[in-house]
Amino acid sequence: MTRLLPHPLLSLGLLLLWLVLTRFSLGHLVLGSVIALGAGLVFARLEPAVPRRRRVWPLLRLAGIVAVDIVRSNLAVAWLILSDGRNRRSGFVEIPLRLQDPGALALLALILTATPGTAWLEHDRATGVLLLHVFDLKDPEEWRVLIRDRYEALLLEAFG
Predict the structure, then answer these.
(1) Residue 95: helix, strand or coil by DSSP?
(2) Which range of residues forms the domain containing residue 144?
(3) Are residues 89 and 41 in the same domain?
(4) Is residue 42 domain-shared with residue 62, that is, in the same domain?
(5) Model pTM above 0.85
(6) Cα separation, 60 vs 143, whole angstroms
(7) 154: which residues sit within 8 A by CB, 6+ positions away?
(8) Residue 6: per-residue pLDDT
């Protein structure tokens, strides 16, 4: 049964959403069921390994740090956009990372992309180098230290 329906709650949720969006009819029930079962089977093949988290406290500290950083970055980017902006130089920074856990890397990508003024562009798994775009780049080494000491250290402590 689990081979046909590997994610029953996902399939049921998709079917219910389909029926709500298309109004209930027998044809939509059949079509929605086929789509929901297919989506459950596809998700079972794409499902990543469960992340192995060692400690929760570093993740809670990281959440607080990220919340403050996002607010500060919003204000800084808004100021740069509203002010003259002639002194602003965007650029790319290569940052060597020690993280190897896919879940921790995904969380770091989410943090960096959600923070205004930065964008995660690429991660080379073989070398462990992250390519980051920064809206207002003054000192690349400052960004390397910030990512390594502020975010990566807590992620290593949590997922290490």
Answers:
(1) strand
(2) 57-159
(3) no
(4) no
(5) no
(6) 22
(7) 58, 59, 61, 62, 65
(8) 84
